[in-house]
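Protein modeling request. Please complete all fields; requests missing the sequence field cannot be processed.
Requester role: graduate student
Desired output: 3D structure, token encoding
Chains: 1
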Amino acid sequence: MPRSSPSPSPAPAAETTAPAARSRAVRVLSGFPVVLGFLAGMAVCALGMVALALLRGQPLQEARLPSPQPAADAVCAAVIHQDYTALYGLLASGQQAAGTQAQFVASQRQLDVAAGRATSCAASITLVDGAQASVTFSVTRAAGGAMTGSGHLVYEGGGWRLDVYDARVV
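Delivered output (170 residues):
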């Protein structure tokens, strides 16, 4: 019987596919340092923003809210001009729910009778914590003299509103 030549072994075929697989792996991994560098850069930027906010002494959320000082000044302006309808509009929803506008105006007029009309008013923000702020009102009344009282503002409905106040002063 004649001898036939041996069939080709699978080893040479495996050897030819190994370099192609390695080449694909090298191409995939060659982009890895770029992706890793991008992610590291983003992380450094995020940490830098947090550090900057902390160095400024303000929480991140607070940086997005407007200052409560104009609202506190508006309270003072309403008190000085005896515009108690406008002052009622500056109250937080919880305060407005406690009574009608007419009741609030009447109570402010009673304060004017008892302590005199407000001749000066100054508001000083003492603490801002996110959507809450503490304020000190210094009011001078014609008959009652100078008085100081505290208040609390909350950020609701797109603006700062008076949530708590000293009814002897404001």
